[in-house]
Batch of 3 targets.
Target 1
Amino acid sequence: MSRDDIQKLLGGYATGTLTPEERQTLFAAALEDQELFDALAREEPLREVLSDPAARAQLLSVLDGIPAPWYRRWWRPVPITALATALLLVAGVAIWQSSRAPLPRRMAKLEFPPLPSAGDTQSAPILPPPPEMKRTAPPLMPSSLPAAVPAAPPPPPTESKAALAMDKPLAIGGTISGGLAPPRQQMQQNGRFAPSAGNSLLEQTNVPLHGVVTDASGAGIRSASVVVKSGATGQVSTASTDERGEFSASAVPGSTYQVSASAPGFRSATLTGAAPALGTPEPVSLKLDVGASAETVMVSAQAGPVATSAVAIETGGLRNAAAPKTKKAPAPALQYQLLRRMPGGNLEEVAADGTVPAGATMILRITPSADGDLRIVEGTRTIASHAVRRGKVLDTTLPKFKRPGRVELQVYFPSDPQTPVAIAFNIQ
Amino acid sequence: MQREEVLAQLRERIVRFAASHYAGDAAEDLAQEVLLLLHEKYPHLARVEDLLPLSLQIARFKLMSLRRKAVRHGEYSQVSITDIPLPDPEASPADRLERKQMLERLMRAIPQLGERCRDLMRLKLQGKSFPEIQKIMGVAAINTVYTWDHRCRKNLMDLMGGDWEPKPR
């Protein structure tokens, strides 16, 4: 060892931890080297102190009482913490996996062609050809769909699509437009995809059905009453439109629904459609024409390559070509008599849809069957409003109609807008 | 190396060491007393690793006695070598006090050492040798342990004022 290396052994002299070889080397060198000997002599006081076991114990207690540096305190628990965290994660994932329901497996993808244009609806068949299903998933069937796919004939090699009016708005007779999802029954009739009624793949909670109710000009009708009735469950969901004519109701997925909208001074309209089994139905649009409450527009829309519609409009009652019958309008809340003041002051009754000369003085004699405020509206314009009492006859002079044509008036109680009375006559 | 050769070299080292603290005559007398004691009390020791530490202990004891007397009486009084026993740490209250004070200084200085130095000091106080410390600390070369200990010893000495004992006033 060099002199410098031997000098490094000094630290072991006081503590008495030198090996015999180190002691021999150090002392032999110190015997030759005065500087090393002096250094050893200066170590003697420390050696004396450390030769006392009690003193050593005190110094060790001091060393043990010094807190570990922050990085050691942080580092040491890391393996334990990481192990505990990993165990907790594994346990949590295991519990979560065992408790959750199996996720639905996507077995097939249905694609629908775009809706044909409105001009094709007249010649379209009532029912669309069955939608074809394009298989995009591996031929593995979940247990909830037994033998449905294996029993079905193989799908055509080329891409085939079922039609549904989803992309393009459905316009029917210029009065109602909307988009419908494919009925669940149609998919079942197809035979390619026939889930049972209780199939969990298609069972969902109600889905939102949004729409808008507009008048002939396309403006939204405020406070229109909207009723959505499920064809499968009979569940009824009601809503009223906001200031923009929009409403939000609910429909049962995978079943047909019937949307009815009514507003005072307008003919009520009904739309029949179907909510898709998966996803939300397209927004529907109902356009209400001015007319009496007894006038109802019935529209049934079917999903398919060519949507079909049957429209029946009748005044004073309901008639429907294919759709179920609707209930009769309630009895009017008033009786009226339209009078014309003749030259000389006499009054002459004007028959329904009668003709009066332009500028004639017209008097509307009303016998209300209830108390309240009575409102007389022409189109969207209120031309008179009176507080009436039940059984008390009210004679109100109508403004003069000088423009030839048909005049349609609506008389109703704002508190009961469902039962307006329509009065029509012609100006010559 | 023969015992006589060791004792001769020891005398030279002790005289030079004592001369750095006291006058030449006192240093010569101190060395002579140490050698006499080794000669009379420890004739059976012949190895340098036995004689040298023993001579250091005797020389320190003699130096401390001289210092105390000089401080107490203001004069130099030679201690009779026949009265000098082997150093007994518990013999003198003054020695106990000095050791206690030194221990307190150590206890204040050690916490100021770096972490590695404290680990080294802990292992040494536990009686571990340098090769054992090398294994415990996972050091490849023992020279590394020597170097670490040398630096730590110097740091500790600096923290205690440059020497283990306080400078005599």
Target 2
Amino acid sequence: MLDLSSRHAKLIFAGVALTMGLFIFFPVYWLVISSFKSSQELYRITPTLFPTTWTLDHFRTALTRGHLPLHLFNSLVVSLSSAAINTTMAVYAGYSFAKYRYFGRKPVMLLMLSAQMFPFGLLLITIYPQLTSWGLLDTRAGLVLSYVVFALPVATYMLYSYFSQVPNELIEAARADGASDLRIFHTIVLPVSLPPIITVFLYSFMWSWNDLLYSLTLIVSEDKRTVAPGLLLTYLNESNADWGGAMAASLMAALPVMVGFILLQRYFIQGVTAGAVK
Amino acid sequence: MAADAATVATPPVPRRSSHARRGGLKAAERRFGMLLLVPALVAFCGVILLPFAKALGLSLFKYTIDMDGPEFIGLGNFARVLGDAAVRGSFVTTLVFVGLTTACSIFLGLVWALIMNQPFRGQSALRGVSLLPWIMPATVAAFLWGWIFNARFGLINAASLQLGLIDFPVAWLSTPYGAMAAVVITKTWLSIPLFMAFFLAGLQSMDQEQIDAARADGAQNWDVLKDHVIPHLRPVLLVTVVLGVIGNLQHFDTIWALTAGGPVRATTVLSVQVYRLAFEQWDIGMAATVGVLWVATIMPPAYFYLRHLMKGVE
């Protein structure tokens, strides 16, 4: 698209690309090397750009201080459950919106989509007493339930826009063969829809895993805490901050989403921009 | 029973009966379609719609931790909010944060998309890796940038000292402007990848012949960008601006983890303000009121976004 045949254009392009590349990637690099540097090397006025010695000390302390393994486990349980529940509900709702016509369909859809403008913090004000009255405050189940807020509307829309593209002929043909609608959906539509469903699953998982606001507020006990508030409460309430430990713990906290993303990124990019770019 | 027998006894008229059967099937289909929606709808109403309605209602009540129940005071909270300079200040802070962050991340996202759209070796791999910041937990991003901005051992101070930009280390996060800059930079860093993905998707549908024709007419890079690429991306730009504004208005996590709204109130945006009112001062009524004003702020961009999303829905 850009013509880089002139030296002038080449120089500007390289300059901009390098600066932006540094801004995007250098912090990630810094996170990684900071967690492998020795404390001695870490706390220097002029930092080294490459560790002179590599050490696992920070990972060791990060795993023993606080309750990182427990928090990681809690996050995994909460995020997997929340992703499974939200994806399941969104799959059926998205299909319903895409392939059926009934009274009230469009207004309900608009209402669900408009939920994106309900501030999460405002909802939390009433979700908190609601969960208390159901006896679900400070439980992982309550947190899973509250994550419907983040994922359900967007997930439903993403799957709606995918299912809309599934040809009607496919469904009509199966109907003509006498298959029930439920059967058609489960045996014909679902198998060809795995990529977007995986995207939505990962999307919901990521929201739950990364959330701080809800997990910080709705979970009080140390043994049920998830990883984001766990990090915050372990490393920020200290007078002499343990930055090496914080970096190592951060890296471990980011790893699960990073791995899931690297494995599935191809589907992911398509799914997230679907509907918005036509 | 008798009616059934009568129905059975009536001789079938083929055409009409098939038509009726078709109609019955349609109704059954419709019912099935509605049934599929039920779980999501129940969850939506219970966890999103009902809490939202209740929160709107609470803005009309005085309700603090030491009270037995909410007490109706009409628009009293709104009068208090508008008379409170600190709360008014958080609207300005929000405007600054949302404006700067949205502008920076969209501009840089577009620039990076243009770079990633050029053919070079390893392009697709680099595109994928560019999305890394986006999937970072906000808390992790806050820690990372907090370390980079650290007053004693931070990278920014070290680099600025080396380059002679400053004579003494600066405690960035303890100064109002420094803290705001840190928060904006961190959120921008987190948002660039998503916007890049949007712009890349938009760039892919660009007509190469149109550009070639412009080139043949002597258009330079800048002309091509200004006259062809940007106009082509206008719909995507609209979506990203709206998404950016909504997302940044909502944003809480990085700010809370990086500055907790401080120093003093320098980075206390609406989300932080509502959180503090509700869960630190336990003044639920006031928190709801600020939240309602917050909804009013989100509504205009959300309206455009919804209209865009619903455009294709028959």
Target 3
Amino acid sequence: MAEGPKKKPRPVPVPTNFTKAFWEGTKQGKLLLQRCRACGTHQYYPRPVCMRCISRDLEWKEASGRGTVYSYTVTHLPPEGFEGREPYVLVSVDLPEGVRVLGTLLGVAAADVRIGMPVRASYERLTDDITLVQFAAERQGGTPA
Amino acid sequence: MKRRDVAIVGYYETKFERRSGRSIYDVAGEAAAGALAHAGIKKGEVDGVAVNSTLSNTAEPFWSNRVCDALGLVPRWLEMSDIGGASGIGNVARAALAIREGWCSAVLVLSADVPSTTQQVRYSGYRPEFQEPYGVQGPPGLFGLLQRRYAAQYPLKVEALAKIAMVQREHALLNPNAIFKQPMSLDDYLKSRIVSDPLRLLDSVMYCDGGAALVVTSAERAQKLGASAVYPVSYAEITNFNGDDPAPDITETGFSVVGPAALAQAEMTARDVQQFHPYDDFTIAVLMQLEQIGFCHRGEGSRFVLDTDLSYTGTLPLNTGGGQLSAGQPGLAGGMVNFVEAVRQLRGEAAGRQVPNPRNAVVTGIGVVPFIRNWGTSAVMVLEV
């Protein structure tokens, strides 16, 4: 077989001036959400303004990291950079702060995932500078979200 | 109030093919020349042009000017839409505005894209930072999340999604320009590869190369041309529905707003719709549009699909050319696939699959996938003869 084009590497986030604090947080194992000081709305992903009221008066608040699965999909045909990792479970997770976060549910077999199941943030170090927020099953008997 | 002061007077669709090796300019040139010939309008009479952003030529910041240069077009009004798959339908609506305003009188709505030959996409915003690093397989990944959530809130029958795919495939077999030429059985559907569970390969579109163009002018001019005119009598569009809510119900879409609005403006209800040509990137999007536009209530989409004859001779003909699912998706020109078929039907030119006594059609557009919700732009247009 002819040699194919070079495989693309897994994409690594490049922080911007207003997302830098978020990525500093994940390096320390913290999930930081923006909270609007004007209207109290939390939001994820970080934005330059409050998505609700467009105030620029935003502060960073640490989330507990506990949440519940809002939806999930099992990836069998991965994009470039993720070949060989399939099948993996993408989840959207609702946090009690009223935001929804996208991540991968690690350590849970696809057949065992359920909408509504409790999960908690876990952290996957990609490089010296970048740690991703992922999710893991909340242990039975853990503090309820 | 319904409008009949602007008309679509010609159309043309290029061959849809995989990896054509064609330049987007060549596809655009063919579509433009074909539509003008079909409309009986000379190139020099075109004083408005509307194009859309692409997957194959996005690095070019001046596509709308560049294509006018290539084609020798001299518009007094020029539009470039970047609402993805809703760009074609949106450009027809924008052309109508420009014509009413008197800025131009004959608009070429031109879409071309060759994503199966080349792509130059570089996404920005949340995508490289908060989506791609998690291994989301683009639209199928996000529609997998959407379909799973819908199925948790409402009864979803896999047979209904299969029927959408199968009816459209039957229609594609009657469309010489459709990419997919093989019949599809329920077994084929059920056995098709799971891409992003619960989404199957046969729930999904496939990129091809191609383009299409429409000519839009005033109703007065259409009469002078003696053209077989199709009237865009109503239109409604919304972008970033629920986009100010950090955790919305993703099973509610912009169609819940623009579907009823477009029907009301056309002075009709869903029962009056004779043909339905919804944007069909995924089967679940078709089912959800049926509910949200008002053909049935929330959660009744599966039952409605299974109980309704959706063939071109049925009670609600669905994407009679095969839709993008079976005719092919020429990238961001994809929305024109559904639109051109509706115009073709209303002119009585859908040989071999003609809906009897065509009077009206509802066409929709879906554009762009936002951050873990459903879709960015929802657009609905009612067409009448």
